[in-house]
Amino acid sequence: MRHSWPMLMACISRVLGLLFLLHAGGAGVAGAATWKELSPYQRELIEVVLPEAPDSPWTREEVTAFLKDYGIRGSSYLAIGFLMRDEGGDHENALEVIRRILEVQNTRAKDALYGNWSTHIDRSRDRKDSNWREFVGTALIVARKSFGEALGPELVARIDAAVVQAARGSAIRDVKASYTNIALMSAFLMAEAGALEPDSGLREKGVAKARAIYEGFREHRTFSEYNSPTYYGVDLRVLALWRSLAESPELSSWGLEMERELWRDIGQFYHAGLRTMCGPHVRAYGMDMMPYTALTGLAIAMVLDDPDLAPIPGSEVYRRSGEWTSLTLHAVLGFRVPADVVADLRSFSGPRQV
C-alpha cells in the first residue's frame, strides 16, 4: 500500500498529459498494445532484425548463437520483440534470452562496474561499457512492466533484483545531467529501483537527476547533445519511457513535456525533401540519415509509417546495424508527436531561419 500514492499521482499525470495532447492537436503514433496493432510497414521495419518465429523454442546452443549475433543490449531489445509478437517459440525464447542476460550482470558490489552488464556473451568480444547498466536495465524494466504476466513471478523477481543492482551502480557512477542520453536513462533507472526499494534513497537520487536534466532543458528547450541524429533518437525513446512507464509523477510529467518539445526541435531542423537533419550539431555520426542508420531516423520512420518518406538507409548492410534493434522499444512505448511537427516531417514547408 505504501506505493499507492505515487502510483496514483503518476496515473493522474499521464491521463492529464494525454488529454492535453489531444486538446493541442497532438498525435499519438508508433505505439501499440499488440503486435497486430502495428501497421504492416512498422512490423516490416522490426522484422529486419527480429528473427523469424520458430515452430518450437530454441535449444540452449541456438540461444547462445542468438546472443553472440546481437550482443547483450541488442538481445535485450529483441527479447521485447519476441514478447510482443508472441508466435511459435517466441515466448519461451524471450524468457530464456532474458535469463541468460541476467547471468552476465556484474554482481560484485565493490567492483567499479557493479551492476553493469557485459556487452557480449563472448568474453573475447566484451568491451566493458559502463553504459550497459542503463541500456540493458531500462530494457528489462520495459519487459517487466509491459509483459510481466508473461514473464512469471520468478523471472520478474530476478529482473527487479537486477534493476536495483544496476541502479546502485549507476548512482555510484553518477553521470552529469549534460551527458543527456545516459543521464535520462540513469534517472529513470534509479527512480524505478527506488520504487522497488523505498528505503534505499534511489528514488530521491533519480528524481534529483531528472530535475537537473529538466531544468537544463528548460533554458533553451533542448539538450546538451544538441541536434544529434544519433542521440536525439535515444532521448526520444527514454522520454517516452518516462512519460509512459515512470512510477514517479515528476518523471512522467517532465517526460511528457520534454518529449513534445524535443519533437518540435527536430521538426525545425528536419528537411523532409532531403530526409536529413540540418544545422549545427553536437555528438553525431553525420547529419544525413540516408547513408547510415540514425536512431532519430528510425523514430521518424515509425512515426510516418511510409517507406517513401522514411529517413533510413536502404542497404541491407546498414539495415542490420545494432541500432535497428531499438525499434522494438519504439513499438512498445510509442511516441507522442504534435500534429504540426508530423506535417513538417512529411513535407518540407519551405526555407526558414531558426
Protein traits:
single chain, 354 residues, mainly alpha, two-stranded antiparallel ribbon, two-stranded antiparallel sheet, 14 helices, 3% strand, globular
| Count of distinct strands | 4
* H-E order: HEHHHHHHHHHEEHHHEH
Structural class: mainly alpha
List segments where confidence is low: pLDDT < 50 over at least 5 consecutive residues.
1-26
Q: Rg from C-alpha positions?
A: 19 Å
What spatial order of strands do you see in the largest sheet? Answer: 1-4
User: For the report, how would you describe the main beta sheet?
Assistant: 2 strands, antiparallel
Average residue pLDDT:
90
User: What overall geometry do the principal axes of the alpha carbons give?
Assistant: globular
Count of helical stretches: 14
Euclidean distance between termini CA atoms:
50 Å
**Which band does the percent of strand residues land in?**
under 5%
Helical content band: 55-70%
